[in-house]
Amino acid sequence: MSPASTVTGLPTVLVINSGSSSLKYQLLVPDTGEVLASGLIEQIGEASGRINHTTGDHKYVEETRIDDHGVALAALQDQFAAYGPNLDEITITAVGHRVVHGGSSFSEPVVIDDAVLAEIEALCPLAPLHNPAAVAGIRAARERFHVPHVAVFDTAFFSGLPEAASTYAIPTELAAQHKIKKYGFHGTSHEYVSRQVATELGVPVADLNVIVFHLGNGASVSAVRGGRAIETSMGLTPLQGLVMGTRCGDIDASIYMYLHNVADLSIAEIDTLLNKQSGLKGLCGDNDFRAIDQRIRRGDTAAKRAFEVYVHRLRLYLGSYAFTLGRLDAVAFTAGVGENNPMLRAAATSGLEHFGLHLDEGRNASSTKHARVISTDHSPVKIMVVPTNEELAIARQAEELVERLRP
Ligand code: ADP
């Protein structure tokens, strides 16, 4: 029997997602998905920081200086003390941490001890923007919450990719020496959504071949056969693959050298250019799909072109992943753009009736928030919208692991 929260009578998990200048948290009940509180601490390390704390229907906003992740965790506890729920009345059974890069070391969630933390830190060269923040967040949280802390890795779902899919065609020894391979990201979301598809269709995961498009500001696609990922679009870093909000996705690797030699940009400048100033933003100046949508409706040609480049790339992946799977049962759209933009979903799947994809325009246009099928009843391939919930997935994985290890 596991310890329980006195508020819900069920185990409760605190999920922490530490970014370099922000920290998101959620206190939730893995069994039911009930969110007891959530928050966002922003502008860590800047002159003035901002804390948003939500519990029930109440939202609280505070401006205060947040020097580092240690101060952020203190602020998090202060929010609970001031606005609730009262952490003294809740037994938090685990803290789940989102960690972006697990390299080849971590293929599943793991309870964090000093050795695990050192290994996550050793992976910082592979994710220089993300893993240092996770390490800082974990350190600070371990000092304040004396319960098991579990790391859930964005790369884990893709750790079993077939070698042919994860191997770059560069000299083998060099790749091995520097750990260069396709790791993939957004794995927690791809795993969660692919399982939700099975639940929604009433089919065992083992019998299902599905392509999941996670289309947020970052965007990735995966091919999942029988619950196991066999392909994904992000690579050594999240820069590869689909056109994204500000990332270019796939390009000729020589563009790096060309920009260096011809445009006289430094490696650091090119890195910033391709990660932060490219993608939809580079093509039309906007990376928010709502703005692009409105501009297209007003006849803006740059926005229309950006949309077409985005859709063209996406359809290339749809086709190649369908062939890689051999048989396709469902295509699922998730995250901000995938869940909310019917125009994109229509453009991505139109004209593919010959391949078994029949979109139902009415269902596609509906804006309900729950998982649903948007293809026709007779469509051989189901087209679906499945809201992702990475916090719930992390909480469930953390709770399951802690429960399994409990004496
Ligand atoms: P991330 O977590 O990667 O920052 P999100 O999953 O929140 O990204 O997705 C952000 C994208 O989703 C933005 O391009 C935004 O315009 C789009 N988006 C969010 N909500 C809506 C909506 N209601 N309608 C259309 N697009 C939306």
TrEMBL record:
Protein task: Catalyzes the formation of acetyl phosphate from acetate and ATP. Can also catalyze the reverse reaction.
Which family does the record claim for this protein? Belongs to the acetokinase family.
EC number(s) from the headed UniProt entry: 2.7.2.1
What is the protein's species of origin? Microlunatus phosphovorus (strain ATCC 700054 / DSM 10555 / JCM 9379 / NBRC 101784 / NCIMB 13414 / VKM Ac-1990 / NM-1)
InterPro entries hit by this protein: Ac/propionate_kinase (IPR004372), Aliphatic_acid_kin_short-chain (IPR000890), Aliphatic_acid_kinase_CS (IPR023865), ATPase_NBD (IPR043129)
Name the keywords, alphabetized. ATP-binding, Cytoplasm, Kinase, Magnesium, Metal-binding, Nucleotide-binding, Transferase
The pathway entry for this protein reads as: Metabolic intermediate biosynthesis; acetyl-CoA biosynthesis; acetyl-CoA from acetate: step 1/2
Q: What are the required cofactors? A: Mg(2+); Mn(2+)
Q: What is its main location?
A: cytoplasm
The protein here is known as: Acetate kinase
Which annotated residues bind substrate?
R98
The UniProt record gives the binding positions of ATP as: K24, H214, L215, G216, N217, G218, D288, F289, R290, G336, V337, G338, E339, N340
Q: Which GO terms describe its cellular component?
A: cytoplasm
Site positions for Transition state stabilizer, renumbered to this chain? H186, R247
Biological processes, Gene Ontology terms: acetate metabolic process; acetyl-CoA biosynthetic process
* Presence of keyword Metal-binding: yes
